[in-house]
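Q: Convert this sequence to structure tokens.
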Amino acid sequence: MRIPGCGRFLGGRSKRHGRLDILPAGSSGSTSPDSGGVASDLGVDGGHQRDGALVFYLSVGRHRIIQTVTRAYISFFIGTPLIVLLFLMYYGLPQWGLKIPPFWVAVIGFTLNVAAYNAAYLTTAFHGLDPAEIEAAQAQGFGHFQIFRLIILPQVLRSS
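A:
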């Protein structure tokens, strides 16, 4: 592959020189538009204030079993150092026959970790809300998801 403008930089030689030819090949994975877009669409990855909203919604939901599982998830990923999680995913999953490329191990590991932290922040902000607002929304006939989307989530995102 020829890199435009590198001929003069390399002393007038236009052929590949050293390791310069691997730059375009190595950048193809890191600059793809979908390098983590799947996790971002689920609202659980790092980078935005709204991330972790799905985990937060499940942790404050009506179902006790889902709440328990979600809170265990949050507790586990907050209590586990990120480097340990990445090592376990990279070296441990192939032992069970699940081989994931290193880039996706990093994306999934960071996504799970950051989602747990963000859900914990959002849950803490949720406990600071006035319960009268939720009761007023219930009195007006709002459903559980409407209360979450229109009343709880905007205030929690603003205060966290």
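The CA atoms of residues 41 and 51 lie 10 Å apart.
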